[in-house]
Amino acid sequence: MKGNPLGLIKHISVLMKNSELKDVVRPDMTRLLVVRHPFNRLISAFRDKLDQYKTANLEDDFYYKSYGWRAVDKHRKKALERFGPDFFSEDNNFGMPVPVDRQYKHSPKQPCFWEFVQEVLAGVRDEHWDPIASFCSVCDLEYNIIVHFEKLEFESQFVENLIDSNHVSKQGLMHFNPTLPLGMTQDELTKLYFQQLSAQDVEGLYKLYELDFRLFGYTFEYEEKIYPM
């Protein structure tokens, strides 16, 4: 099976408890983990899952039904107080910092990034934004390859020498995530979304993802404060 390596892994993987992994992983196996800057990953998850929808009706969208409507129901009143009544207008792109792709749709009924973050800080979890350290068994399994998403094109050249190219294509390994908005860097995109957050929000997010920051060597600067401190 060629193509998207994440799709390949989901296709062949089985659900296991962390304690069971050591019983099935042999020393000669290649144990690879792809990591990403925690805040960039959070924004990517939000943009892909909650600030646009691909179904005919918003109410049929899985992530809106699972998370979106509840975030709006709980936090829209405070969001209006915080950002003002025009924030969710069509002229302001319904509160989204970046317009959605033309092939997708957006509605003012969907949560803005600030509303989504309040849910994350309240404990709402999903595999797309959970801390990597919380579900990739980094304390139970000794990975012999850790690839940083930001350096994927470079590091994949090394990985390809260890992975059977008949199963994961080069293009799939290097380009399995949607691209950034045209003309923007990842740092610019992150700063744009984080303009909706308070210092308290950012501090709370850092505490949630602190282990990812420290384990995988990431940093973040916010209002002249550098994390980890």
Walk me through this protein's architecture:
- Helices cover 45% and strands 6% of the residues.
- It has helices spanning 5-12, 18-24, 38-49, 62-83, 113-121, 132-135, 152-159, 170-174, 186-194, 199-216, and strands spanning 32-35, 145-148, 220-222, 225-227.
- It has one domain (5-227).
- The relative contact order is 0.18.
- The strands form 2 sheets. A two-stranded parallel ribbon has the order 1-2. It has a two-stranded antiparallel sheet with strand order 3-4.
- Strand 3 and strand 4 (225-227) form a beta hairpin.
- The radius of gyration is 19 Å and the shape is globular.
- Helix 4 crosses helix 5 and helix 5 packs across helix 10 (199-216).
- Residues 1-5 and 168-172 have low confidence and may be disordered.
- The protein is built from 10 helices and 4 strands; from the N terminus they run H-H-E-H-H-H-H-E-H-H-H-H-E-E.
- It is mainly α.
Distance between the termini: 44 Å
Strand order of the largest sheet: 1-2
Whole-number total of structural domains: 1
Structural class estimated from helices and strands = mainly alpha
- Please state the overall shape, judged from the principal axes of the Cα atoms: globular
The count of β-strands is 4
User: Count the helices. How many?
Assistant: 10
Helix content: 40-55%
The average pLDDT value, as a whole number, equals 82
Rg, nearest Å: 19 Å
Strand content: 5-15%
- Spans of at least 5 consecutive residues whose pLDDT stays below 50 are 1-5, 168-172
> How do the helices and strands follow one another from N- to C-terminus?
HHEHHHHEHHHHEE
Largest sheet: 2 strands, parallel
